[in-house]
Write a structure and sequence with these properties.
- It is built from 27 helices and 43 strands.
- Helix 15 links the parallel strand 23 and strand 24.
- The protein is flat.
- Helix 6 crosses helix 11, helix 10 packs across helix 14 and helix 26 crosses helix 27.
- It starts with 14 loop residues before the first strand and ends in a 17-residue tail after the last strand.
- The strands form 8 sheets. An 8-stranded mixed β-sheet has the order 1-2-3-4-5-6-8-7, with helices on both faces.
- It is α/β, with parallel strands linked by helices.
Length: 957
């Protein structure tokens, strides 16, 4: 029988998982070495749970039982255990059975399954997680159904089965409930799995950010140093929980540090510790982690460096750290982390090296870099923005941006999410989570290390072959606001956190500088907005003039947003005055408070105190407000007020500044201020695009359905082409096989006939009918008509023969050029349609115009498969050269409907058959009526594993 070191041991079944309460456990196959663990585990199970498992009193396991439960062939008999700290907390096993319920081997496809969970760990979602994993193992071994006998009183286990989302049958036989589960994943089972994943991962983050007690391990005896700095920051922030200092060098005479109880170890504290900040050198971290794990610490923040960023040895130390932390059920931030902050009034946690904690606010900030984290905190602080939470994850060896998206999605204290990412470990999952979060609140991302071609030091993540431009396009498809710099991240965050979303792209511009107004106008056009003619208030304008002009602009139904430009104005004595920024800020706020809720941004030049006044804690404004309901805010929908009510915006960002007639004064919104027109307009443009995405996301479109698609025929053809032993590297189909497969999905490819010499070329032309095209297929000339390898509109044999002679004389011998003949098709626009599958990102559909210019400029659009009709329409319109499809400079528009249908058919082919790992249609000539596919390549390979459909597991880098 197998042990963990046996080559037959299925190591790929091992997985770290997050349980319902946010703690972790390890799932692994049970081996012959687990006899003592099994006996110890069973002794801790209550008599009631034993009765539910064996349907009779069963106080202890016999030697025969222990042997049976630890000896498996991992095919017909499989046992898995969930472990914490190396000890079993739950087990599950299946035994393959035949139609009579007796032990069997393949081809029998049913198995009996049974669970046992230690009472202390019941209610943590252990059994539900084990069911996901044992079901995946069973499917791998050819088992299609599980059968289970459960006592009617065992309602918890019945619920585990019934809530799993699988197709099932239920009956009552001989005093027990008989359940049969079909193990094929369903939409419901996948939804259940993802909902559980969301709750568990969000809870693990919540435990980290809102601890009841914190221990700083490595707080030095003398002031200074990393540990002592974090301790000081915790105290200065006013952390509401219990705080402890831990330093193994402390003697019995030293009982406190900075007024905090001090101990030589976590175990010596004698009270529960929820969060440990580990600020000791890397070589001492394992000892500290073990101390934490053995005494019930839930979460760790490891500040120590010298891990994966230092090289191969450090990478192995990092992996060992993650394994050790997870083995105790702990989640981990770091290593090489800067720390975490939670500004909630009930927490006030500053467990970081940030000397100046941010003010409380509505922005959640995640960064993978301590240095960038410092810059972002400083920039937001200077501009008066507050944060709900801040995380600097360092090497992100465990908790990552995905986990915090899970948390922020439902966090009522966070309205805008800002992320600085240098790597994305699981792009497929990140895109899914970002799309869901962006539907509720803005997600703004700046991605570093985009062009380095390597993973940043310390980030041990899978490498994707998909170019960064493609990943960026897919993130935008998911509603992510993708910006290019850290400055733009702050600029966009300020606008989204303080203003409602614009209803459209129309922008009013007003101010006391004609030149600054024109710069703003030009910037709006550059960003694709629709600016109105700037209103010049002249340099003599006073704050009262600004207030009146802004109020009028906001009340104008012809605009969706306003940009105010301001420079020092001319005073009564004729001299230029910078004025009191507070006075102008109050005037602008007052105008905004009395008008419908539309976003306002201010561009200012050398006006002292204006930016600070606009971003400071808002003053109350006593103004009557119109009863018109405002535009929706980013964080949620608004509602119409009842008389006497103030407006409630739930988790939304853009507070309406209105006060119902006779109601109490409201707090005015912070108005973002920018030192340059381009920065303000760029932030506003991102808000406009995001608002449009939010509106369109409500109707994502439909996947193409066509009656002439032969899905079963295509599947049979693919199976035949791959053969019984397919090459795992894949194979490129011949032209005829590719044409046959595409034909099954209603994608005809124009026939192409070889022309190894002039006589064959003439014969091919007679078969196809004149006029024809003669072109080379040599790799260095293929799809490059600019190099002279194509001759078009050859009307007869004479022209064809002359063209053949010219081609071979100019470019090379026929055997080098591999010429082909093809019938001419109606002229139009040459385009390219491609689809490919990446294990990390998934299936991607791409579109662009054919030709070297588009390829050099990277003018290609991308969407995830399966694509909807809305996706197909956006694919055509999102490339820069799209005007060529719609009648540019007097040319006739082409048949975009036919092109969109082609995109949807290719999407269906790849989505229906994951063995189709690449499709290339080039060129696709789109005419005024219809289109023609002139060339096609298809690549098949064994279907890649879908990690997003498997059981939940934490990444293991």
């Amino acid at each position: 029988m197998t042990t963990a070191s046996d080559p037959a041991y299925p190591a790929h079944w091992e997985a770290d998982v997050v349980l319902r309460d946010g703690g972790t456990a390890r799932i692994r196959p049970i081996t012959t070495e687990d006899a003592e663990r099994l006996v110890s585990f069973y002794e801790l199970v209550s008599d009631e749970s034993k009765y539910y498992r064996f349907f009779a009193p069963y106080p202890r396991l016999s030697a025969k039982d222990v042997h049976r439960f630890t000896h498996h062939d991992y095919v017909d008999r499989v046992g898995l255990a969930a472990t914490v700290g190396g000890e079993f907390i739950a087990t599950v096993r299946y035994d393959r059975i035949n139609a009579l319920g007796r032990p069997a081997s393949a081809p029998a496809d049913e198995a009996e399954v049974a669970f046992l969970v230690q009472d202390a760990h019941q209610g943590r979602g252990v059994a539900s997680t084990l069911l996901e994993h044992i079901a995946a193992v069973a499917r791998e071994r050819g088992i299609r159904r599980f059968a289970a006998e459960v006592l009617p009183a065992n309602s918890k286990m019945i619920k585990v089965f019934t809530d799993a989302g699988y197709q099932q049958k239920r009956s009552f036989e001989d005093g027990s409930v008989h359940l049969t589960l079909d193990l094929e994943p369903t939409a419901e089972s996948l939804a259940v799995q993802r909902a559980r994943e969301h709750r568990a991962e969000a809870r693990s983050v919540q435990r980290l950010l809102a601890p009841g007690s914190v221990a700083v391990i490595g707080a030095g005896r003398a002031p200074g140093g990393v540990g002592r700095t974090v301790l000081r920051n915790l105290l200065d922030a006013g952390f509401t929980g219990r705080t402890y200092a831990v330093n193994k060098a402390l003697g019995p005479e030293r009982r406190e540090l900075d007024g905090v109880p001090a101990f030589p170890s976590v175990g010596a504290i004698g009270e529960p510790v929820d969060l440990a900040i580990v600020a000791v050198p890397a070589e001492r971290v394992p000892e500290a982690v073990a101390d934490c794990g053995e005494h019930g610490v839930q979460s760790l923040v490891v500040l120590a460096a010298d891990y994966a960023e230092s090289g191969p040895d450090g990478r192995e130390r990092q992996r060992a750290l993650v394994r050790q932390a997870r083995s105790y059920g702990m989640r981990l931030i770091g290593p090489n982390a800067f720390g975490i902050i939670n500004t909630a009034a009930g927490v006030r946690l500053n467990a970081s090296l940030a000397p100046e904690p941010p003010a409380a606010g509505r922005i959640g900030l995640f960064t993978q870099s301590g240095a960038i984290g410092i810059a972002l905190l400083s920039g937001l602080y200077r501009r008066g923005a507050g944060l709900s939470t801040f995380i600097s994850s360092g090497n992100r060896a465990d908790l990552s941006g995905n986990d915090f998206l899970q948390y922020w999605y439902e966090d009522p204290a966070t309205d805008v999410v800002l992320l600085y990412l240098e790597s994305i470990g699981n792009p497929r999952k990140f895109t899914r989570l970002a799309r869901r979060t962006a539907a509720a609140k803005p997600v703004v991302v700046v991605k570093g290390a985009r062009h380095s071609g390597t993973t940043p030091p310390g980030h041990a993540v899978p490498v994707t072959r998909v170019p960064d431009a493609t990943v960026s396009a897919l993130l935008r498809q998911a509603g992510v606001i993708l910006v290019g710099t850290v400055t733009e991240l702050v600029d966009a965050g300020l606008l989204l956190a303080g203003q409602p979303l614009p209803a459209g792209p129309r922008v009013a511009i007003l101010g006391n500088s004609e030149s600054l107004g024109l710069l703003t106008y030009d910037a709006c056009l550059t960003e694709g907005l629709r600016p109105l003619r700037p209103l010049d208030l002249t340099t003599g304008a006073t704050p009262a003039d600004f207030r009146a002009a802004l109020a009028a602009a906001l009340a104008d139904d012809a605009c969706d947003a306003v940009v105010v430009t301001a420079i020092p104005w001319v005073g009564e004595n004729g001299a230029m005055e910078s004025g009191d920024g507070q006075v102008l800020a109050d005037a602008l706020r007052e105008a905004a408070a009395a008008a419908p809720a539309k976003p306002v941004a201010v561009v200012h030049v050398e006006i002292g105190g204006l930016a600070e006044a606009l971003s400071a804690a808002a003053r109350t404004v006593n103004k009557r407000a119109p009863q018109t309901p405002p535009n929706p805010a980013p964080g949620g929908p608004s509602r119409t007020n009842s008389p006497g009510e103030t407006e409630e915006r739930g988790p939304g960002l853009g507070q309406s500044l209105s006060t119902p007639l006779g109601g109490p004064p409201r707090e005015a919104t912070r108005i973002p201020a920018y030192p340059a027109a381009e920065r303000a307009v760029r932030a506003l443009a991102e808000a406009v695009r995001y608002a449009r995405w939010r509106r369109e996301a409500a109707d994502p479109g439909k996947v193409g359905e066509y009656e002439d698609i032969d899905e079963a025929g295509a599947a049979a053809l693919i199976e035949r082409l791959l053969g019984p032993a397919p090459d795992p590297r894949g194979t490129t189909l011949t032209a005829s096989d590719a044409e046959e497969l595409l034909g099954r999905y209603g994608i005809p490819v124009r026939p192409t006939l070889p022309a190894p010499d002039a006589a064959h070329a003439v014969a091919a032309a007679r078969r196809l009918g004149y006029p024809v095209a003669l072109k080379t297929t040599a790799p260095h000339l293929r799809h490059r008509p600019d190099l002279g390898g194509v001759r078009l509109d050859l009307a007869d044999e004479h022209q064809l023969a002359r063209a053949y002679a010219e081609l071979t004389a100019t470019l090379g011998k026929p055997e080098e050029l591999a010429p082909v003949v093809q019938a001419m098709v109606p002229r139009g626009v040459d385009t390219v349609v491609r689809a490919s599958i990446d294990s990390a990102v998934g299936a991607v559909l791409s579109f662009g115009l054919a030709g070297a210019a588009s390829e050099l400029l990277g003018d290609t659009s991308h969407r995830l498969i399966p694509a909807t009709d809305r996706d197909a329409a956006e694919l055509l319109r999102s490339i820069r050269t799209a005007p060529l499809l719609f009648g540019w400079r007097g040319s006739a528009p082409v048949d975009t409907a036919a092109l969109e249908e082609l995109l949807l058919r290719v999407s269906r082919l790849v989505d229906d058959h994951p063995e189709v790992v690449a499709v290339g249609l080039e060129p696709v000539i789109v005419a005024q009526h219809g289109l023609s596919v002139l060339g096609a390549t298809v690549r098949l390979a064994p279907a890649p594993p879908r990690t997003d459909l498997g059981p939940r597991r934490l990444p293991s880098y």
